[in-house]
Amino acid sequence: MSKKDAEPQEAEPPPEQTVEQLEAKVAELEDRWKRALAETENLRKRLAKDLATAQEAERRRVTAAWLPIVDNLELALAHADEANPIVTGIKAVRDQALDLLAALGYPRDNETGIGFDPVRHEAVSVMPGGGEPGTVVSVVRPGYGKAQQQLRPAAVVVAGEQQDS
């Protein structure tokens, strides 16, 4: 008897079992592939959302850094001689800056005679008898932006109750 005959030979599985195993492996690989595709798509969506959020935050940061410059232009114009032709140029620059702020989604908020809104306004003073209680009498520093997306609230003087002496 030869050595070959003495060793037990491994029995080959029937072809049906091999096909079933291969089909199961294909199904498993297809499932893993579909999951990887879904995960890749979710990652793409999340990164697009994160990028948009980061861009908006950077736009807010840069735009907010320009507000003191716009405020200083306002102060310069408040104390300038209207007849000076340079004042006309400064007004044009200020108007251009305000238009840009509005185009970026941060319109100027300097309305008076409206009700005080703690989301849009920051009360810096109360003027007794200055009008209907709870209304904005004057704007000390304009605000920029809309209620849901605001760079800064408007600093306002609010009308209070009439004080009796």
Automatic annotation (TrEMBL):
Biological processes, Gene Ontology terms: protein folding
Gene Ontology molecular functions: adenyl-nucleotide exchange factor activity; protein homodimerization activity; protein-folding chaperone binding; unfolded protein binding
GO cellular component: cytoplasm
Region of interest: Disordered: 1-20
Signal peptide: none
Cell compartments where the protein resides: Cytoplasm
Physiological role: Participates actively in the response to hyperosmotic and heat shock by preventing the aggregation of stress-denatured proteins, in association with DnaK and GrpE. It is the nucleotide exchange factor for DnaK and may function as a thermosensor. Unfolded proteins bind initially to DnaJ; upon interaction with the DnaJ-bound protein, DnaK hydrolyzes its bound ATP, resulting in the formation of a stable complex. GrpE releases ADP from DnaK; ATP binding to DnaK triggers the release of the substrate protein, thus completing the reaction cycle.
Assembly and oligomerization: Homodimer.
Protein's UniProt name: Protein GrpE
Organism: Rhizocola hellebori
